[in-house]
Every structure is written in C-alpha cells, then in structure tokens.
Amino acid sequence: MSLEIGHQAPGFKLLADDEEHYELSALRGKQVVLFFYPKASTPGCTTESIDFTERKAAFNAANTVVLGCSRDSIQAQCRFRDKYDLAVPLLSDPDHETHEAYGAWGMKKMYGRESIGCIRTTVLIDSKGRVAEVWSKVRVKEHAQKVLEAAEALNA
Asked: In whole angstroms, how large is the CA radius of gyration of the chain?
C-alpha cells in the first residue's frame, strides 16, 4: 500500500515495550513519527533507535511523539530497549498488519537475494492524523535529524 501526503494515516493500536497500547486516534493533537525497522538489536536498527532516542527532547518540544515498530515480540523489544537504554516506545506488530497499512512490508532485495519483509520506512503524521511525510527505504545515517527538522517545520 502506498501512503499519500495529506490523506488520513491508517489507524493502529499496538502494544509497546512499556506495556502500554498506543493508538493513533488517541494521539490526536500531537504529531507522530512512526518508524518501522526490520529487527531489534541489529546494527542499522540499533543506530536508528539510538538516534531517535538522542533527539527525544527535541521531538517533545516539537509536540511530536516518536514510536518505533517492528515484528519483534514485546520480550525482544524490552531486551533491545534495556540493552541500549532506548527512550522511545517500541511497538510490536507480529502479524505485520500495521507494516502493511503503512507500506513498510513487501518485496526487498538484500545482497542480491529477494525476500518479503520489513522495508525500513518512517512516516510523519500531523496533529490531525494526516500523513505529512513518508521516507521509504530509509538510510539510517542522519535520518532522525531529517525527520526532526520536518516535524519542527510542521509547527512553523
């Protein structure tokens, strides 16, 4: 599925590592960054999650909630959080329904081999629940900073 800028973001309700359920409709009034990553504790996913954690205060100042999402179990998310002292909620989407709704699931190529799985994707949702920006096939380096700048620009 392809997300369109300005359209309502697909709803979701997922359990996170903090044992809370996060529901998009309950976050109205705040901007939401939803970043999808393939697997907890792998190098790229770790770097990305740490980068978002390091900018948490700046995202908060921009009225923006940051949520990570992978197919990992809650237990795996908790180990990941604890190992790297992550401060952003990590959602578990084991059936990849939310991944699919956000275009973060599909055919990908790695080392010349094709497989179906998580496509590293980040979506910025405005305070009214509309898609404001989509980054597909994300390259981790400097990505969190670019997302922060986009979130801040929405407030301008």
From this structure: 14
pLDDT at 72: 97
Report the alpha-carbon distance of residue 31 to residue 126 in Å, rounded.
5
Q: Give me the average pLDDT of each 10-residue run along the chain (156 residues).
A: 89 96 97 97 95 98 98 97 97 97 89 88 98 94 96 91
Gap between the Cα atoms of 4 and 139, Å rounded: 21
45 catalytic? Reply is: yes
CA pseudo-torsion sign 115, 119, 89, 141: positive
pLDDT of residue 1: 55
Model pLDDT for residues 32-52, shown as the tens digit of each residue:
999 999 999 999 999 999 999
Q: Considering the candidates 45, 69, 78, 118, report the single residue annotated as catalytic.
A: 45
13-155 classified as CATH 3.90.1570.30: no
